[in-house]
Amino acid sequence: MKEPRMIVLNMTSWAGISIGAEHIYGKMILVSPQWKDITFENIEEWGINTFGEEIKLRKELSLKECKVLDKKDSGYGLNLHSMEREFKLGAKPKSDRFNTIEEIVEHGVKFWLDYCKEHNCDVPFIALYEGDKLKPDSVEYQSVKEYNNIN
Question: Whole-prediction pTM value?
Fold first, then answer.
């Protein structure tokens, strides 16, 4: 795959829409280099969901998180397996359910930094919530170098 034009974290949630929904979900979009017209300034106009490879963002769970999710899932009849049991057997259960925007953005930034290091590239990163820039402070970096200078 060619170096992406940029990497986008696009977050969504059913919180406030569906009863009992509280989590935030995210996918990393590796925007294809052919989309040269997409910039940080106009990204909201593009409906970013269809412009590159999509990778569902997941996090490794702690034992406490496994217990909480198992309890929630069993209440809805969704608990087909126990993440707590997996954890205790040495597995590292993962979930695509994040608790806060800060948590998911932290994981998105880590994905971006790891991707750039692994692929020896330096592409921009932006976090969007349901296709819109985070307000009032958008999370965006033009390069890994810029990120390192700030942090």
Answer: 0.78
